[in-house]
Amino acid sequence: MCLKTKCPSQALTLSKPIIHKLEAYWFNLRFKNTEIPLEKLLINTDHTKSEIFTPKLSDALEVYFKLKCHGKGDIFFRASKRAIKDTINLLKDRPINNYTTIDAARFRDHMFERKLASSSIKRVFAIIRAVINITIKEHGLNCPNVFSGTFIPFLDDTKKRQPIPIETIIDIQILKRCN
């Protein structure tokens, strides 16, 4: 590298920052692949800063409402609150990266034990997935949504509601006119 000078003292002055940068570069190369002594005894060495401050499921619901509440009706809020409340009641309110696929399967089995139809369980899981997905994106987290891969079998267990018989409708209309 040319310093564009013939004066030895000026060349020495100009070379000092370059030498400092080279020394820093060599230092990083030497210690980049060096193992930390007793690294296996350290706790949480694999967590990034964003994973340490992961919001809990209840906080995720607040984020979801803050971002998705505009133009939504009462049913939206009730269904979302109920889905998250049921999840928290069974699995506890934990940071969203602390749930596992085993937890999601346990929640699914719990829903089937409560005699919910598979279509209702799919709807609840869709809500939970949406709440967690939006929080992961908003906080820039690097964790999977364990509720997104849970298999929910289609059991064809929905009950078709029978229409109200016409005679009953006529009776109600007559009663209403009399009052």
Topology:
Blueprint: H1 8-32, H2 49-52, H3 57-68, H4 74-91, H5 101-113, H6 118-139, H7 166-178
What does this structure look like?
The protein is mostly helical and 179 residues long. The protein has a domain at 51-139: Orthogonal Bundle (DNA polymerase, domain 1), CATH 1.10.150.130. Helices cover 60% and strands 0% of the residues. It has helices at residues 8-32, 49-52, 57-68, 74-91, 101-113, 118-139, 166-178. Helix 3 runs antiparallel to helix 4 (74-91). The longest helix is centred in the N-terminal third of the chain and has 25 residues, at 8-32.
According to CATH, what is the topology of the domain at 51-139? DNA polymerase, domain 1
Mean pLDDT: 85
| Shape, principal axes of CA atoms | elongated
Examine the secondary-structure arrangement and name the CATH architecture of the domain at 51-139. Orthogonal Bundle
Give the DSSP E fraction (strand runs of 2 or more residues): under 5%
Secondary structure tally: strands? 0
CATH superfamily of the domain at 51-139: Tyrosine recombinase, N-terminal domain
Oligomer: single chain
Bin the helical content.
Answer: 55-70%
Profile the largest sheet: none
Number of alpha- plus pi-helical segments: 7
- Going by helix content, strand content and strand pairing, the class is mainly alpha
CATH class of the domain at 51-139: Mainly Alpha
The radius of gyration computed from the alpha-carbon positions, rounded to a whole number of angstroms, is 31 Å
